[in-house]
Amino acid sequence: MKSLLSLCFGLFAALATAQALPVLELQAGFHRIEAEVAHTQPARMQGLMQRREMAPQRGMLFVFPESDRHCMWMKNTLLPLAVAFLDDAGRIINVAEMQPGSEDNHCAARPARYALEMNAGWFARRGLKPGAVIMGIERAPPPR
Predict the structure, then answer these.
(1) Which residues pair with 84 in a beta bridge?
(2) How many domains does the chain have?
(3) Model-level pTM?
(4) DSSP string covering 46-58, please?
């Protein structure tokens, strides 16, 4: 019973976080992205945990307080994801494919200001590699 209550609370918290996050429209070439913006520490910590599905054009933009070699992991994340680490101008530094539940670190190859998580394979299927620019980053709320 206790674990069921814990699971329900976790799912409710994930849903509440998802609904409370601002959504920002981004562009990758002619590809449109609807990115939930994780610009606060609690939102960055929650990320896409406990989500069971995500529409193909949806993702999550993590806005960090400073450029650094940020790392992501997939603990409690149920979806396979790809993460692109971005510099201050929105240029892709590197992309990593991540498996659900993995505690492996996936890190920026050099200091990054942002990370954009999309469904697994999203960047590869669109030919988006290091150097490609994600437009609209400048409209993201400032980190808190």
Answers:
(1) 95, 116
(2) 1
(3) 0.86
(4) HTTTT-----TTE
